[in-house]
Structure formats: C-alpha cells, structure tokens
Q: What sequence folds into this?
C-alpha cells in the first residue's frame, strides 16, 4: 500500500474509510472518485480524520494521505484516544512521520534509497529517501514524484512532494526534531454532473 487509506482498508482490523452519506456517496466510490473529506471508521463508530504525530494535519491530496513520509501507522481505540484530545467515538488513526537517524562516534549513518513502481494503467511512482546521521546531528530528506492513472481514461493525478526533518541531541537526554513538508497535487476528477473538473491543491 502507498496510502494510509489503502493500508487501513486492507489490513486494519475493524478499521477503514467510511462514507458520510452512504446512499448518495456510494455512487461516487470508483477509483479516482473520492474527492470529499475522508473519514475513518473503527468498529462501526466514527474515528474522525487521520492525524499526523497526534495533531490534525492536511492530507497529501484530498481524501488520500500518501505514505512517502510516513514511518508508522497506528490505530488508537477506546478511551486511549482521549490522551490526544477530542476525537471520534471509535478513536482515531495516527501516522508517525519519518525521523532522521543518528550515527555513532565512529560511524556516521549514511543511507539512500530509490524506489520505483508502475502499474497496468500506466501509473508511475518514484521515491527518494536519504539520511545522514552524525553523533549529535541528523538530517533526512524524502522526495516523491507520482503520475497516478486509473482504469477510466482522463481520471488521474500528478503529485510532487518533499519532506525534510532535522534532529539534534541536546543536554539532559533531550532531542530536538524539526520537520517540514510541501506537496503539490494536480488532479483531474469527475464531478457529480458527469463532467470533468480540473483542480489544484497545494
């Protein structure tokens, strides 16, 4: 899975996306159709919107939270969700951002990976992930370039996204972490009037 929503729908026990108004929204639930605000359900109850590091945050593009800058996905259920403030009755899904990894005194931690994916509809996806970690300072940079297509012609999206995080070790066994993300998504989506709508979200 490359998105949090696909991960929850496919592997989450009792957790997944829900439709706000099933009677009408079920007609607009083909791949590429979802362009309203996504909600997550847990055990038949609403779980609100997906959070990032425990805080409310915008998704990569409407209804989709890409995992290019995500290190883990966890589902907080029941009363434990109150530790993060107000949430849905079923709890909420939380994503953890990728973190820069420190090296050691003798060996800096230097890693870099490039991944590529294609599918039967002509979609192309490239990811670049690099980390440079010293003893007390570490930096990580992640980039995404994706051209998403679906089985229906003219429906798709192009996404360019960048994520960077800096970590520093401070006295008293304390670490300072600063991160930033920029996403540019251009998509072609169907409207309720069976026409094409050209939208841009940043």
A:
């Amino acid at each position: 899975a490359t998105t949090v929503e696909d991960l929850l729908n496919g592997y989450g026990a009792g957790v997944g996306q829900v439709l706000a108004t099933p009677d009408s929204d079920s007609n607009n639930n083909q791949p590429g159709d979802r362009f309203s605000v996504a909600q997550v359900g847990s055990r038949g109850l609403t779980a609100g919107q997906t959070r990032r590091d425990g805080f409310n945050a915008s998704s990569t593009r409407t209804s989709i939270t890409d995992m290019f800058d995500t290190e883990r996905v966890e589902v907080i259920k029941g009363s434990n969700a109150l530790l993060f403030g107000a949430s849905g009755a079923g709890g909420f899904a939380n994503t953890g951002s990728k973190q820069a990894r420190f090296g050691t005194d003798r060996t800096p931690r230097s890693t870099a990976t490039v991944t590529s994916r294609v599918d039967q509809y002509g979609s192309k996806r490239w990811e670049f992930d690099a980390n440079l970690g010293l003893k007390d300072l570490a930096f990580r940079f992640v980039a995404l370039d994706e051209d998403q297509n679906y089985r229906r012609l003219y429906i798709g999206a192009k996404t360019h996204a960048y994520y960077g995080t800096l970590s520093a070790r401070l006295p008293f066994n304390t670490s300072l972490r600063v991160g930033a993300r920029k996403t540019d998504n251009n998509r072609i989506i169907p409207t309720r009037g069976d026409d094409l709508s050209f939208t841009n979200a940043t």
Summary: The chain has two helices and 13 strands. The mean pLDDT is 80. Residues 77 and 91 are 4 Å apart (CA to CA). The helical segments are 4-11, 22-25.
